[in-house]
Amino acid sequence: MERVEANRRDFLRWLAVAGAGLAAAGIAPAVFAQEAAAAGADVVVVLGATVVDGTDGPPAPDSAVVLVGDRIAWAGPAAYLPPLTGVRVVDGRGRYLVPGLWDLHTHGLDYEAIFPPLYLANGVTGIREMWGYAENRAARDKIVRGELAGPRAVMGSSIIDGPVSLLGPSVTKVATADEARAAVRTAEAEGADFVKVYSYLGAEAYDAIVDECRRVGLPFAGHWPYRVPQPAASDAGQRSFEHLFGVPAYTSARRDEILATLAATPFDPANPRAFFALARELDRQATEVYSPWRAREFFGRLVRNGTRLSPTMVVNRVICSPADTFAHDPRLKYVPRDLRDFWAEQVRIRTPVTPVEIARQEAYFHAQVELVGAAHRAGVGLLGGTDCLNPYVFPGFSLHDELDYLVEAGLSPRRALQVVTRDAAAFLGRAATAGTITPGKEADLVLLDANPLADIRAVRRIDTVIAAGRVFDRPALDGLLSGVEAAAGAGVNARSVGLPVHSCC
Predict the structure, then answer these.
(1) Percent of the chain residues past pLDDT 90, beyond the cut
(2) Do 399 and 420 form a contact (C-beta atoms < 8 A)?
């Protein structure tokens, strides 16, 4: 045992000399190594993999990545390493090492026995949770304290909507500028990382949110608020628009007609979903008369403002498909019965039924995929998000599906992978600490059995996940999945009655 410790110290002394990358990240290598040794931090070496580091650089075969505790300490050719005794070695030979994946539109982290382990089992080491409330903040805090295995979570505020809303508790409804400002101050007090705005906000309340967010230093993102022109919302600083809502209308030859119809239609408190259904149908019709010059104008505005689109194509695929399309999806074994039943009910209500409806919705979905490709070619930044908790959108698994759709839209596998790694971290303001395999950054990595640059579906072939330096090899990942399946079968982790029950936004 003493010899192993001595060898470990020798390795850390080598790292102190070799760690130029740590110095570049603002970390003194010698101090880092000394502190790691004193703290007894785990040292892990991923050896022999081809590193696809998330940058624009070429893949690096036969590489080594050294992790000390929860950080990447060194990366380079495996031949440069000293003898590997006293450290844990992860065999990467014949495999591909990529940064941990980020899903930037999620819900339901408080399903603690179900959602957090499913993310990790699928290589998702970070999420943007799009609705903050006490229960999912508590789950996030457990992950931070190491009491719950799960992804890093960037947490939104309570959803802020108008006095008429599609949503029930715990949405925050505001009718006036004063109420809107108070909602932002509450979000700040609760520790939200950003403010989530929603569809039925009035223009006065939205303007107050924008101003108050600037005052307190919080970004804001979310749905297109229908009462605010979408280009104006981008100009105001909205960081992202979710689900492509409004994008077909603003890129259509029928733009002015569609916007006038929406402006003239009130939100009905007795039937709040009626306006949403109208807006979605008008978006569908808009895709039938796409206007390249209107698209250039609209996309150019988003590019100038740095506004991202989060298309969430996986949830759009479900909505555009007949109700029984996903009824036998094998991933349903990881979903509790009450949630499966609710999903089945919801798709029966909201998905196409007749042959004409099915054909129209199929064409609409493919038009949305093409629209994502057009936005990408125009230089609009994309986010990889899924909107899990909605019917048949599965934590972790569905981000792999979203990557497939990004490639279908025209992104190369490399660019699609960058969307959910490097670009995601940059969007979240974490470029210095996450998103690429770079010394000094967080030790969030995924080891794949196949090359994702040749076929993006390789992200499904996971050998090992490393989250905050913690290693989950294949048996451990299989154990996570078995645990979720057992919890789902036992009905573990039913939600609080005070929360929106089974779907989201």
Answers:
(1) 87
(2) yes
